Amino acid sequence: MIDLPTEMEQELVRAANCLKTAKQVLALSHIDADGITSMAIVVETLKRLGKPHIWRNIHQINSESIYEVIELVKESSPDVVIFSDFGSGQIHLIQEHIIGMKSVNCVIILDHHIPPDGRTTLGEDDLSGNLIELNPCQHGLDGSKDLSGAGVSFLFSLAISSENADLSELAIVGATGDLQDYYGKGFTGLNAEILRLGIDGGFIQVDKDLTLFGINTRPLPKLLQYATDPYIPGLTGDPDACYYFYSELGIELKDREDQWKRWVDLNQDEKQKVIQKLVSEILHLYDDPRVATNLIGDVTTLLLRPPRSEMSTAKEFSTLLNACGRNKRSDIGVKICLGDDEAFEAGKTLLQQHRANLAMAIRRIEDGGFEEKEGAYIVNDPETQDTIIGIVIGMAQGSRIIPTDKPVLGISTNTSDDGHLVKLSGRARQQVVKRGVNLKEVFSEVAEEMNEKYDSLVAEAGGHPMAAGAFIHNDHLEEFVEKTSSLLALKLQ
Ligand SMILES: [Mn+2]
Asked: Collapsing DSSP states into helix, strand and coil, what is residue 345?
């Protein structure tokens, strides 16, 4: 079993007891891979218990979307409401609006994000009985690497029944989606314990192997041609060079049935040859030897899933789920996790769609789709969805389509609902952060100033120094961008 901090175990037992007596459950979760797997763990647990339930993935809980939650509670009259992969940061909204609703007997939060007010201990409210918050940050653990939202959900599920140990595979997919395995260098903390439980149970296998994306699903040449992590100069983007790479090594690209071979089809000897050649080329091209050593790492295979599919490794599975979320179809992702074949087919189509959306958005930026302001580059593309704007501007700077000397701000008016909020994403390269730019702080400062000025909530900000976001009322968008640009210019001086 898993060794947990005592207080955390007590809270888990309280949460489990609360669920066992539930008559109707409403489950809410985030839309990324961690949120989707969290939801799938909760839903599967509810199914196994035979509890009536409805579930919904939501982009973000904020002062606007909380009304969507209120509506859902009114419609389904749950006595238990579960929030997973979010909730800690929005606990005041939940306390204010959800706790007191007529049908609601108990709210369970399964989160791992550090609350914005810095709460790292159990609060008074946790003891009142109708709000149970589970968050590793409150138990001396690090929610950015020791445990994901899916991990918290899994521990909750395991506290209900030890027969839910098979759901460890989904906990590991969620943690992988949140990059908690440090790009194949292995899991730590409770993640490592969940992994061990999954290996012992025969649900998961871990091997040292090539960490490039697509070892199960991409034909050998495409494995190199589409490599972006790391980007391999001379191979990435150049199909001819990729064919030549293998032919020089005497490796056949197709099998006897004329089907493209994939990485998993190669024998040990062939794999060794490819790795040696890749390592020597990369050492040649990068100053940093870590880029080469990162090529090999822990590859997590999910033994309960169809082999050689987008579900067979944790990394590809989490990408498939992220593609569902970013195409506003987290529901398909949840169904894939629950074993629905039709959803899997739909998910693969969304994955292709997602790649196409990214490529098209990047191309629009390449065709002059950005402008330069005093303190930032601005991408304002009404065609790019709010769910991918952050990745798109990050990729555009990563590939130097947009210069990297200032942060880049991406604006998306293409949001999933018809509310008044516009999404703004910011990305800054390491060298810009080193010069004193903290995007999260800048966004928060501007938001605070404007909220005060208009004496109402016109902007909400969150994130990290290098990657932050804000939701802004569209009447005030221009002012927010101008103020942010000026403040950034000051910081960059
Ligand atoms: Mn998460």
From this structure: helix
- Count of H-run helices and E-run strands, the chain: 18, 13
Q: 167 alpha carbon to ligand 1 midpoint, in Å?
A: 17
Mind listing the pLDDT tens digit for each residue in 350-374?
Answer: 998 887 888 888 889 988 999 999 9
Please indicate whether the domains covering 6-205 and 368-492 agree at the CATH topology level. Answer: no
Q: What beta strand segments (E) does 172-315 contain?
A: 204-210, 296-302
Long-range contacts of 194-201 (CB under 8 A, 24+ apart): 194/2, 194/151, 194/154, 194/155, 194/168, 195/168, 195/300, 197/1, 197/2, 197/165, 197/168, 198/165, 198/168, 198/169, 198/171, 198/172, 201/165, 201/166, 201/168
State the pLDDT at residue 123. 58
The Å distance, Cα 191 to ligand 1 centre, comes to 13
Task: Give the Cα separation of 175 and 146 in Å (integer).
Answer: 9
Q: What is the band of 191 on the pLDDT scale with cuts at 50, 70, 90?
A: very high
Measured in angstroms, how far is the CA atom of residue 178 from the centroid of ligand 1? 6
Rounded to the nearest angstrom, the distance between the alpha carbon of 176 and the centre of ligand 1 is: 10
Query: What CATH fold (topology level) applies to the domain 6-205?
Result: inorganic pyrophosphatase (n-terminal core) (3.90.1640)
Structure tokens at 51: 């509890």
Task: Check pLDDT > 80 for residue 129.
Answer: no
Task: Tell me how far the alpha carbon of residue 249 lies from the centroid of ligand 1, in angstroms.
Answer: 42
Q: Does domain 368-492 have CATH number 3.10.310.40?
A: yes
Q: Quick check: 34 and 175 in contact, CB under 8 A?
A: yes
Higher pLDDT, 235 or 229: 235
* CA 81 – ligand 1 centroid, Å: 19
pLDDT exceeds cutoff 90 at 380: yes
Q: How far is the CA of 323 from the centre of ligand 1 (A)?
A: 15
pLDDT tens digits, one per residue of 280-320 = 887 776 666 767 777 888 999 999 999 999 999 999 999 99
Domain boundaries, the chain: 6-205, 215-299, 368-492
The CA 366 to ligand 1 mean position distance, Å, reads 32
Q: Which residues on neighbouring strands pair with residue 412, listed in sequence order?
A: 423
- Ligand 1 centroid to Cα of residue 337, in Å, is 16
3-state secondary structure 409-444: EEEECECCCCCCEEEEEEECCHHHHHCCCCHHHHHH
Cβ–Cβ under 8 Å, residues 190 and 4: yes
Q: Name residues with Cβ closer than 5 Å to ligand 1, which is an ion.
A: 34, 85, 149, 178
